[in-house]
Amino acid sequence: MRTMQLVYASRPFGYDDLTLASILLQARDNNARNGITGCLICREDLFLQMLEGQRDLVTSTFSRILRDERHVDVVNLLSSEIHGRLFPEWSMRHDPAQSWMWTPKEVARGAIGGASDEEIRGIFERLASDRPAPMVNWLTPQRPRKLSP
Ligand SMILES: Cc1cc2nc3c(=O)[nH]c(=O)nc-3n(C[C@H](O)[C@H](O)[C@H](O)COP(=O)(O)O)c2cc1C
Q1: 148 within domain boundaries
Q2: Which atom of ligand 1 is found nearest the CA of 42?
């Protein structure tokens, strides 16, 4: 079974806490069923999401995400085969964008599109080694699941 990692960036459309909570609820519910894990970084001007899982399930999830009207300008930044997950415990971790990531000005100037695969992966590796932010996580409990490696 082939496991892959996909990262995309997009611009939120109609961003607020309630919208974010509903996205996370839906994501965690579906992902737990599909054995998908990952992390969603959010800020008013940015969604940056990593999806990890079985190739066909990640692809079909990303196709649904592409059609979602709660964001625009979706750009696929990274798709690669992996041998181990960065977020094996998370059906979708949520993190607010951190001060060490791109500033809104840099994002507006297109910094993310020009980032290398290593830079993009490095952001998620750094987050995976940190404790998660508590914010919306209590609203949307995780479900136990069985995963491919
Ligand atoms: C920023 C963002 C991230 C999302 N992440 C996921 C996700 O990880 N998994 C998922 O199934 N849906 C995710 N969604 C929701 C999908 O776009 C779509 O609405 C949903 O998968 C449809 O599920 P349903 O057919 O069960 O209603 C996300 C949406 C947005 C805007």
Answers
A1: no
A2: 1
